[in-house]
Task: structure prediction
Amino acid sequence: MSRYYYYLIFINMVANIIASVPSILYESHKEGSVSSMILGLVAGTIIVTIYTRFFNAFPGMTLPDLLEKTTAKWFYKPFVLFLAFMWFFAGLITLATYTFLLIRYVTPEMPVIQISLSIILSVIFGCLMRTERVLYTIELILLVTLPLILFIFYKTYSGNSLEWDFVKEAALYVNQLPDLNSFSASFFLFLGVVNLFMFNRFFTKKQSFNWKHVTIIAIISTLNMFTTYFIPIGYNGFENIDELVYPWISTSDSIRMEYFMIERVLFVFLLFYLGIAFVSIMIHWHVSIEFLKFVFNLEKLKIKGFKLGKFIPIPFFIGASLFTIVKLNEYQLLRLSSIFYNSLIFFFPSMILLFFFIKRSMKNAKQAKQN
Amino acid sequence: MPNKQSKTKLFILILLPIITILTGCEFKDIDKNVFVSMIGIDKSDDEDKPYKITLKLYVPTSSFKQSPKPEYAYITQNGETLTEAIRLMESYSDKELEFGHSKLIVIGEDLLAEKANEIMDFLLRRPDIQMISWVAVGRPSAEEVVKMVPQGENAAYPALFNYFDDIGTESQFIVTTYLFDLRRRLKEDGIDPVLPIIEVKKKESHFKVNKSMVLVDKKEPYELSSLYTQTFNILSMNAPIADLIIKEEGEYFNARVDSMESKYRVNVKDNNKIELEVDVSLIGYISESKNPLKTQDLAYYSKLMEKEAKEKFTEFFEEMIHIGYDPIGFGLDYKSRTLHNRRMSSEEWEEAYKNAGINMTINAELKSTGSIK
Result:
């Protein structure tokens, strides 16, 4: 598979370390988080495989294109609009989480609106670009931030302060029945693949996708999930891990780099995660804007030759996100994300039925053409 | 259609007014901040305001040449809560108090026994206090520790930091405890925090950090003597090097251990009886001896060292078991090995720990007698 495909999956996994996923997992740390994670791992790998195989069968076609060809207008227009809202919301969750983090740890004196506005504006510039340029941006940012983030992970694993006994204690709670919230949170880590709905436009050649690629994804996601869940436990203890509001921030603050320019890893971590969060929001909102373009034919809207169309959704994006960020508190954000993740575990697997339908109709159409 | 040149002009015209928006960052300027280097928390005499906070502030100077000696300012304030005391302090200073660079938290001995949890809540809840700051006990009080500037202190780097940061002194008597470590040990069952005690030697103008204190929730803190502190450091692999005095069978020498490893395990026997299995390996050389030594007898000296170390370590464990404190973390080891639904309850565990047997294996190896025989 093309490396850009892995970026899509990878960004979603890594970005959620700072978002609500660990907090949701820790809420049921004694009631089956570990078993739900294992279950999530299996289910996630399956859904990644199915989605990738489906889109690989139609190189260069986005989901709206496929829907337009196979389904009726009354169905696909509202459906794609609904998808656009969903993607907007996914970006919004990351944005809100990150804004709260920044105001809590980096710039406590700055007004919320100003912080979120500065992120939103840079993201908006990013997501108005063409799809392939978005992917190039992702690659650039990953090149800068990823080595340092991997270095921080290495530091966490190699530090003396990591108490493996806590990790073992946590892992022994594997014999509990899985929990819905934890399952959906760990399932969400895999859903980077659904960005193919729009980004498949970039993958114009049919690519090989077999068990090797699935194994790579499974290994990376296992490592990622292990790190997400167990490393904060190793640093902060098991029994009271759920009292931490931002487990990963506390963990990165527990690592010391005595010979580095900055001793406190927290700020390095936050800075590089700003890059990851930016990319994650950009992906989601890019997809969302593209969906909106499709639904309302925004491309065709011109005033004196100036393509106004794609700018129309922006005020709504800014307004809606500012409104939500100002209204929400941390607890509501956590619950909202949890509800969102829970809804996804029903939505995306049932999309597979639609895929079957599309595949069959496409085949029929092809045969009809040949005859 | 505008041509390329006019497009560029338009772009610059739009860009210019935007630049004026960039007037500066929202952060307070650095000269409007004053950096706290240490926080001392004590119990005050005032009953309504039980907390007394002492802050050591760096005094800003324009250059090193101007003030080659360390200069600090101090503020002390009582308060009903810690936050109230800090809020009152802010009115003493013309600048914003910045806690993000504080590296050491000293807690007064009196306060520690009563209010460890309340102090912890404050320290953890504030996002600007580093989780990697060191925590220590101040004797006689945190205020005296914070306010003392010992002989030979460099400007802008308090001497006290060198005790803990593993770059300066590497004494085997110094326990280093970070705030996050204190938190996890305090909150979890099965492992108890150990804090270093900083003593002030006013006359000689220096500190003494060679004792420590085991804290247990709702129990009296237990003070570890220097010897026990050293033993704890060896056993928890905190110290990079350690000295052991061996006085056995007519030999009297000093072994310097430069590589050590220790393993623990709890063996559970029938009806909630446990046995603590400790496996220590010490590798080093002889650094001082009363008698001349023979190099061919190194194996014999190692045997003597094993015997001595075993006596010392067993004594430490027996004391810890006797009072029921667990600084090494046997309880945690037990929990990490047993499924949670088959575990004994914490009361049963405490009972079992108090009656635990010790099975110690020591593997000592002296590699050399030093430069002379």
Notes: The interface with chain B takes residues 30, 104-105, 107-110, 114, 161, 163-169, 172-173, 175, 235-240, 250, 253-256, 258, 263-264, 266, 305 of chain A (CB under 8 Å). The domain at 3-370 of chain A is CATH 1.20.1740 (Amino acid/polyamine transporter I). Chain A has one domain: 3-370. DSSP finds 15 helices and two strands in chain A.
